[in-house]
Amino acid sequence: MSEQVEQREFQAEARQLLQLMVHSIYSDKDSFLRELVSNASDALDKLRLEAFRNKDLDVDTSDLHIDIDTDATARTLTIRDNGIGMTRDEVVELIGTLAKSGTAELRQKLREANQAGDTEELIGQFGIGFYSTFMVADRVDLVTRKAGESTATRWESSGDGTYTIAELDDAPQGTSVTLHLKPEDADDELHDYTAPWKIRQLVKKYSDFISWPIRMEVEKTVPAEEDGGEPTVTVETETINSRTALWARPKSEVSDEEYAQFYKHVAHAWDEPLEVIAMKAEGTFEHQALLFIPSQAPFDLFNRDGHAGVQLYVKRVFIMGDCDELMPEYLRFVKGVVDAQDMSLNVSREILQQDRQIKVIRRSLTKKVLSAIKDLQSDRPDDYTTFWTQFGRVFKEGLLSDADNRDTVLRLSSFATTFSDDAPTTLADYIGRMKDDQEQIYYATGESRQLLERSPHLEAFKAKGYEVLLLTDPVDEVWVESVPEFEGKALQSVAKGEVDLGASDDDQSEQGDFADLLTWLQETLDEHVKEVRLSTRLTSSPACLITDTFGITPQLARMYRASGQEVPVGKRILELNPDHPLVTGLRDALASSKDGLADTAELLYGAALLAEGGALDDPARFASLLADRLAKTV
Ligand code: ADP
Ligand code: MG
């Protein structure tokens, strides 16, 4: 029946991941069944929706279900659905390839994980689905026919680097996956998956909530009649899942394990949920929601497409996955289900974008998630730390995008600080530690902690014992521009505007002493700086560069440029350390002769730029000035 059989190779990343599964020491091998049932259930959801939208599609959707067949003699297990099915191209793309959306990230993560040898974590990050079958099977056959098409496709693989694919003339619509099971091995947690009781147990454990019937043929023995005769054995088809929506059950009656399995199904994830949020809103826009905060970020968290977020149901019927309208983008790590009561089953993405009801629901979900994070922060510090390490960078986007909740988001955020080498601080804790004479919350932005800690901007803050927040995520550059204060304390960059770090009374006279130097430097460096003034920020460096209070920092300008926007970078201010011998020396030299001093001025400026991690406009010129100068001293 089958025509040409073609052999193909898995895409490189897919092959690596597959290898990982085949040789996995992952103990929970049973979970392959959850993955297959989950895929079948998704396929049925998709078909129901497609039939609803496309009236020309000629399919019978009156009896959508999942069948599980076992064959103890052949040692096979088959999971069959009459759902949407796949075309040949889809099989190649969906089963033979991995994560179109984030291949670069995927490669990077695979490299890291291979080095660290941490399979468990890797499995968590990738949410390995179909490939998990190779934990329990030597060979997997998949036969599928897409709804509305006449030819079918057969796919086969032993989980090595290749698979075969062939066209079939005939097959039922939908997908059937047959596992040729590895030998039973209790030590390796490989059970007998041909035993109906085992399948029943696993379905109960992993997939009981699936809304479609999961059916299995069971043998029933009818006892012999009283007047003699043989007992008869009949085969009946039985539905083995209860099909109750988990979100419709009271929280007290659902076990953590059930929530965890449901999370893995909706999120296509393999990690454990960090927090379960169940809510029910009555009144005008009645809805129920079951949301999860994962414990591990997927590898493509920063890739905005290609993540299964929140699913929308209407009156228990699946409407769409990845419903962006239900959750703000900075909470895109939240997974789960929202079931709305008074919405049309016909609702489309276009309608959702305008829908008032959705906006109300989204507001209430946002509040609920923020309050769950608040509870983590106050009651479960370790879990809060996990949350922050995994999702903090994304969460901080809310400081920019969610003006209504900005204060809450700020309160729930943590920041690296000079106070501790490794533990981040909340702003509330920072304020608790502020010095008596300190009025502002100080922060520094830059590429890395190391760079910031050594930057001249921090010197006097360190010397005076003021704590400084060290903000090194790209998003930090941006949000600090739009968050002026927290609890009445202004946020102040150590590299911007004026800071008054205990200027003394003889300041004015000191300024006078340096007046000639300041004027001369201003003229000499006019191309680079708009002002030269004395600093209270410096203790050991001779000079540093400061951005105006409302000016754009070089880092921010770089970010804009990277995203294709050109922003004018104004000239900055050069601040001098009046106690540094180079500065006093320059002042004294200037009084006698200006010979060669212009080069010194340029070196001074260049050094200030380098010290903050900046890039010189003309490094070759700087190097030659420096070499000339050094030549005079050797
Ligand atoms: P995920 O479910 O997270 O996308 P899987 O590895 O489980 O990852 O499956 C990969 C893809 O293969 C699915 O997204 C789906 O498009 C397709 N697929 C798998 N099983 C089926 C099925 N039974 N019917 C239709 N499509 C399927
Ligand atoms: Mg899947």
Automatic annotation (TrEMBL):
A Pfam family hit: HSP90
Keyword tRNA-binding: no
InterPro entries linked to this entry: HATPase_C_sf (IPR036890), HATPase_dom (IPR003594), HSP90_C (IPR037196), Hsp90_fam (IPR001404), Hsp90_N (IPR020575), Ribosomal_Su5_D2-typ_SF (IPR020568)
Record-linked SUPFAM superfamilies: ATPase domain of HSP90 chaperone/DNA topoisomerase II/histidine kinase, HSP90 C-terminal domain, Ribosomal protein S5 domain 2-like
Domain spans labelled Histidine kinase/HSP90-like ATPase: 28-185
Gene3D superfamilies per UniProt: 3.30.230.80, 3.40.50.11260, Heat shock protein 90, C-terminal domain, Histidine kinase-like ATPase, C-terminal domain
CDD domains: HATPase_Hsp90-like
Entry similarity comment: Belongs to the heat shock protein 90 family.
SUBUNIT field: Homodimer.
Name of this protein: Chaperone protein HtpG
Lineage: Bacteria, Bacillati, Actinomycetota, Actinomycetes, Mycobacteriales
